[in-house]
């Protein structure tokens, strides 16, 4: 199977539209249709219905394989080109709330020991960091999310099975300091069904609000935690956040969660392939290990 055809197929499957896939790939819609037809001809089966665009059973099976195959091809390319890359390079990716004082201190130490270290930092959503690390575009990825105590994060494909926990702290409900709930010692999320919430998927690592039935009073389509906490302090809605983010904030109160019990967890992802044990990525990973 031609990888270019597989990539086009994945775009159509994910967007649910030939025209949207064509726009993403900078192709004409006719070219996308021809590539899908060529792939179906090669496999001898229909992969998509056309109106509406939906995956057939065979198409759903191929989608699962295709995403893994494309990631492995990119990982192989990155692993080969890494052998000819100049020394003293570190590429690190983070989700917005994965950055912390210990990460900053570890990076400062690594850079101090190598004055000529070329460092690139990418802050991006979870899916992008996971994929970029799996393909080798990043040396290391730091991702965060909420989970039950001691449980690993549920990473999207192709998540790193070797991910390492580097930090964990309680999850809390953030409210303005003058809010009626501010003096509570704990709160159950189900009891807050009548409250307004801020839906901020680019900052808080929930794909949706943490409990069914909660209402989003405001949608924040950005990735700055300072903007989100400012919105909460101004009374625009509540949010579940890691406790450390509210430390020292006089305008916000952190209410511990009763049910469900959640923690905010940060995990380290590593690029596949052989890594220089004395290189900056290995040294940084060692400093971040608990």
From TrEMBL:
It comes from the Bacteria. Gene3D superfamilies: Periplasmic binding protein-like II, Winged helix-like DNA-binding domain superfamily/Winged helix DNA-binding domain. The keyword Oxidoreductase does not apply. The gene is gltC_1. SUPFAM superfamilies: Periplasmic binding protein-like II, Winged helix' DNA-binding domain. Belongs to the LysR transcriptional regulatory family. The lineage of its organism: Bacteria, Bacillati, Actinomycetota, Actinomycetes, Micromonosporales. One of its GO terms (cellular component) is protein-DNA complex. Residues 1-56 form the HTH lysR-type domain. Keywords: DNA-binding, Transcription, Transcription regulation. This is LysR family transcriptional regulator. GO terms for molecular function: DNA binding; DNA-binding transcription factor activity.
């Amino acid at each position: 199977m031609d990888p270019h055809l597989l990539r086009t197929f994945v775009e159509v499957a994910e967007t649910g539209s030939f025209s949207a896939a064509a726009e993403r790939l900078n192709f004409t819609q006719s070219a996308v249709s021809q590539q899908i037809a060529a792939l179906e001809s090669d496999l001898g089966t229909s992969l998509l219905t056309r109106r509406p665009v939906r995956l057939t059973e065979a198409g759903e099976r191929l989608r699962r394989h295709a995403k893994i195959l494309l990631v492995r091809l990119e990982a192989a390319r990155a692993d080969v080109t890494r052998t000819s890359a100049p020394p003293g390079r570190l590429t690190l990716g983070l989700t917005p709330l994965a950055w912390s004082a210990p990460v900053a201190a570890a990076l400062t130490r690594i850079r101090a020991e190598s004055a000529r270290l070329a460092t690139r930092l990418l802050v991006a959503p979870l899916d992008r960091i996971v994929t970029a690390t799996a393909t080798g575009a990043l040396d290391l990825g730091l991702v965060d999310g909420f989970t039950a105590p001691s449980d690993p994060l549920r990473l999207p494909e192709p998540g790193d099975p070797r991910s390492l926990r580097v930090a964990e702290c309680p999850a809390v409900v953030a409210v303005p300091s003058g809010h009626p709930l501010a003096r509570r010692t704990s709160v159950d999320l189900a009891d807050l069904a009548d409250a307004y919430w801020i839906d901020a998927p680019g900052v808080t690592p929930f794909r949706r609000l943490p409990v069914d039935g909660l209402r989003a009073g405001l949608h924040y389509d950005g990735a700055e935690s300072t903007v989100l906490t400012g919105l909460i302090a101004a009374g625009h809605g509540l949010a579940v956040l890691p406790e450390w983010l509210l430390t020292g904030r006089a305008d916000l109160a952190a209410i511990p969660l009763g049910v469900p019990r959640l923690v905010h967890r940060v995990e380290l992802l590593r690029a596949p392939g052989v890594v220089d044990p004395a290189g900056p990525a290995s040294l940084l990973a060692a400093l971040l290990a608990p």
